[in-house]
Design a protein that fits this description.
Layout (H helix, E strand, L loop, with lengths): L1 H20 L21 E6 L4 E6 L5 E12 L2 E9 L7 E6 L1 E4 L2 E4 L3 E12 L4 E8 L3
Antiparallel strand pairs: 1-2, 2-5, 3-4, 3-8, 6-7, 8-9
Length: 140
């Protein structure tokens, strides 16, 4: 009987010892999420395989002072691109057809073997704020 008491005593001391050495777990504070600020969209882009181009739509232009865009890509390992800018003249939307190729005197020649295509649109608002949106164009 005294052996049982001795074993139970050692077991109790071990449990108490482990309890005292174990770090306490504290509950995390509840996360309070603030309402998200909605940012207006100023552009959208769509690949058109039929016209061998990217069709870019510009939106909410009443708030925009200037739009700059750069389409860059590799065509058979050679860097190519389209660069442009415009100032909206009162319209609320506009669009551009950015051709993967070159044009001269109304004769257009498409580029082939296109890879690493990106479109970067920089929108400058009337307030002076600037928004940059980057599109990665795949599977051309």
């Amino acid at each position: 009987m005294s052996k049982k008491i001795h074993v139970v005593g050692i077991l109790l001391i071990t449990i108490i010892f482990l309890f005292l050495l174990t770090p306490h777990a504290y509950a995390l504070k509840k996360r309070v999420r603030s309402s998200q600020v909605r940012v207006a969209s100023y552009s959208s882009a769509k690949l058109s395989r039929d016209t061998h181009s990217v069709i870019v739509s510009f939106l909410n232009l009443k708030l925009v002072r200037r739009i700059d865009y750069v389409l860059s890509y590799d065509a058979n390992g050679i860097k190519q691109g389209v660069v442009g800018a415009f100032v909206p003249s009162g319209q609320s939307t506009d669009s551009r057809n950015l051709y993967f190729g070159t044009c001269s005197r109304n004769v257009c020649t498409p580029h082939y073997g296109i890879s690493r295509a990106t479109l970067t649109i920089t929108t400058t608002l009337s307030s002076g704020s600037t928004y940059v949106k980057r599109y990665i164009i795949k599977n051309i």
